[in-house]
């Protein structure tokens, strides 16, 4: 919520105005001096040649401001020297626009400045050519390209961020309001969070402030004005409190710098919107930063502060012991300070850190480069040193991974944005590895963050030693142990309790795979059953020959479609054996249901009459039946309880007494509806219950009933009504089944 200037800034000094380009034009010799000040080994010749090359290449080009174009790359280089970036990065900054805006090619750069610089310039050029806030359809794909281009070398991103910072500082020279807004949005959504992720807080804060002023000028003005008023009324108290802090620390023999921290309009605005609190509640807080020589002194200072004033436990965080993934380290605490003039006790927020940590907090990845030893291979002579620290490449790499795993780039973009924005929680493996996750993440997110395999076999979680529900949101500092089991199917609802894109994609992919296997097994057994019944061979070879007709790629895909209810067995038979009729005797046919009841199953039909089972009631053997002759002379076979008989009130004369013939070989098709839980394994459970009653499935259809339930419509072939009733009872007894009933009649029946 507060801003810290790297200069030794005390309360009372106004924030520097980012409106004015800070890096005023730097001369060649000055740029060299700036780099030499922190890197005596700098290749002066290389830097000078880049300076001259860029100035000549950009020649008479000008900026919107009217300045010569070269002032821009020069300012970008200047910004990077403030971060004490390695010389190759500074050289890249000087050259970052020559390939895009002049006749120079990457090959030219390679000839003159070598492989490393050429590679970096190429990377920045690629980033610049990608329009991130393009049409919605291209956005995700463009962001994917963007992530790929920066993933190779984090210095590419560093130069791009400095470039964007200078462009933001000079944004007001653009007249086109729409364009300014687009650039500001892109900066707020993508560049500022990225700067935060690689630890360059200085960039992040300034990018946010300028974007905020552009995107919401009224709010920016309102907060700035109120901050100015507040400043006047609190400056005396701040100075006094700083003196008390200094004295207390000095009395304990600690040599500490005490700075008051300024409040930035955007961070106040963000908290006002996120926590729904008023300006007064947020801004009227004293905030200090204390900088010390080493870690031990930091903890001593913490002890002194806590001994002097009462701490607020919920506000305490120790990022020295557990650094953030962008390597940020500091102790954060808050205390109830001494009473002010009007008697109120003031909340005081304090950050405690070493000078080195301060440096890392400001410079991020730029703070960790060093020269490689001479003779080491590779084209780069600089490496990012990360021993004992989090890998600064992790963020780009994680983003890349997300795009590679995600099936839908739009979804991936959504999650990437979510991950960039959300506040994080930091949790630990039992061995002490830090895992950073977006706020609200659960054990599932943790498991997938460790490794896809861990996520795939996760069945439960222990948090701080006790078993907890997987949906429990993780908190800072939680020690998380993932309970695993191979081959345990993930409940469908798990996707909803995962927050990270990585976990969601992982779960979705796994569910898809397991559902595929389940549908395959079911589809194959249904098909085999039916083909068997009509004495046709269902060999893979026969199905393969029909693939083109079925418009499928593989035999497995065909069976999966049957198992999913998207392909009826009748159609499959027709495709594999064109012209082969399913009707054994061609007469008694119930539409949609595979006819296995035939003319010879029924006694009492007039000689030569054609008959079919009525769709409205689908009578099965054992039920009392009656025939009704229709206009075409076909005998429709109904149960005597069928509703359609009453409704139509047919003339008595057309009724024909019928009955089922006895015999084991008599079967009929029927249809049932089974409501089941939407989980992996439920389908095969239902199929095996049905098989236990010696009933076979001839077709299956399914429709989701909400997220948690699925309605199955299953066509079955039964011997008689008793078997059907018993099977339904068996289904209802299954823990996976919510309800099961016979469907007696379909509405479309004539
Ligand atoms: Mn540029």
Structural class: alpha+beta
User: Oligomeric form of this entry?
Assistant: single chain
Ligand set: manganese (II) ion
Beta-strand share of residues: 15-25%
Please describe what this structure looks like.
Helix content is 47%, strand content 17%. The two termini are 73 Å apart. The chain has 29 helices and 24 strands. The model is unreliable at 1-24, 375-379, 386-390, 584-597 and 746-750 (pLDDT under 50). A hairpin with a 3-residue loop joins strand 22 (696-705) and strand 23. The protein is α+β, with helices and mostly antiparallel strands and 750 residues long. Strands 2, 4, 5, 6, 7 and 8 form a six-stranded mixed sheet that branches. The chain has a five-stranded mixed sheet with strand order 16-20-18-19-17, with no helix packed on it. Among the domains are: 7-219, Hypothetical protein af1432, CATH 1.10.3210.10; 223-365, 2-Layer Sandwich (Beta Polymerase, domain 2), CATH 3.30.460.10; 422-499, Ubiquitin-like (UB roll), CATH 3.10.20.30; 668-743, Alpha-Beta Plaits (2-Layer Sandwich). The structure holds manganese (II) ion.
Name its key features.
six-stranded mixed β-sheet; disordered N terminus; Beta Polymerase, domain 2; alpha+beta; 750 residues; 17% strand; disordered C terminus; Ubiquitin-like (UB roll); binds manganese (II) ion; five-stranded mixed β-sheet; Hypothetical protein af1432
Short description:
This protein is of the alpha+beta class.
Give the SSE layout.
Layout: E1 2-3, H1 28-38, H2 44-58, H3 71-82, H4 87-95, H5 98-101, H6 106-113, H7 115-129, H8 136-151, H9 154-169, H10 177-197, H11 201-215, H12 217-251, E2 257-260, E3 262-263, H13 265-275, H14 279-283, E4 286-292, H15 295-308, E5 310-311, E6 317-318, E7 331-339, E8 345-354, H16 355-363, E9 369-371, E10 382-384, H17 394-405, H18 409-421, E11 424-428, E12 434-438, H19 443-450, H20 452-456, E13 458-463, E14 466-468, E15 480-484, H21 494-497, H22 501-533, H23 540-545, H24 547-550, H25 555-564, H26 569-576, E16 602-603, E17 611-613, E18 625-629, E19 635-639, H27 643-648, E20 655-660, E21 668-677, H28 682-692, E22 696-705, E23 709-718, H29 721-733, E24 737-742
Parallel strand pairs: 4-8, 17-19
Antiparallel strand pairs: 1-3, 2-4, 5-7, 6-7, 7-8, 9-10, 11-12, 13-14, 13-15, 16-20, 18-19, 18-20, 21-23, 21-24, 22-23
Manganese (II) ion (MN) binds next to loops.
